[in-house]
Design goal:
This is Phosphotriesterase. The protein contains 10 helices and 11 strands. It is of the alpha/beta class. It starts with a strand and ends with a helix.
Amino acid sequence: MIRTVLGELRPDGLGICDAHDHLFFRSVMLRGQELDDVDAAVAEVGEFAAAGGQAIVQWTPYGLGRRAEELPGISRQTGVSLIAATGLHRAEHYPDGFVEKVWPRLAEVFHDELTVGIGNSSVRAGLIKVAGGFHRLDDHAQYVMRAAAEAHHATGAPIAIHHELGSAADAVLDLLVDTLVVPPESVILGHLNRFPDARAHLDLARRGAWLAFDGPSRANNATDPHLLECLAGLIDAGYGDRLLLGGDTTTAKARGATGEGPGMSFLLTTLRPRIIREFGADTADAIFRRNPARAFAW
């Protein structure tokens, strides 16, 4: 099953999916660009649905303004399945002292949000989102990933990773898979487009994890010209069945419906047709439909 904000869903019912995005997001590093407007979120999801989108995975973790209580209503209003996350981001995204308060009970928080509900809502998370550091895993990252692994082993929930500038994915697999015995098919490596090293991507693919590439991001647009080249190298090597694609809209300015774009719908109005032309309709169907249905299933 896949756990959405409206309950459990059969994987074959997920449909065309934005595998990494944000409807609500509040970070001290992005002051003034918070995603916290419900009407804007509805407009963005509606635009995605109009382009053929059927599911969105929100990677916003604990303490960053997830607005979990609003997600079921948005899902019902738009007809788009939504998946919420538990987990913890890098410490610099939180106000001073916030991380220290939750630190001693981190694995318990993850477990409770996966099995009971997020905050005071009955919405249960469908994945665990954590973060690595730049080319290394510092003490914060290692502790959080150990808590994520504990919650995974208790529930079976997938673990999705923010890689700082796309780096340290190999170190993440060394820890989560080799040391903490999380199955590689339960690990989703995010932001790999931000480190467009084809050889490194092939090494990661051989280890069995999911490889997630973000659509155009205003903060990382220098990687956009490398996206199809990165996908091509993996598809040609036989790893088209391990690829995921998401928009990663993290600021109000980046929304398509109410900002300057490109927004979530860009995945389907622009990138999907290009992928069909370059790699064929079957590969596009794998990236946008079949692969997410497997990656986010428990």
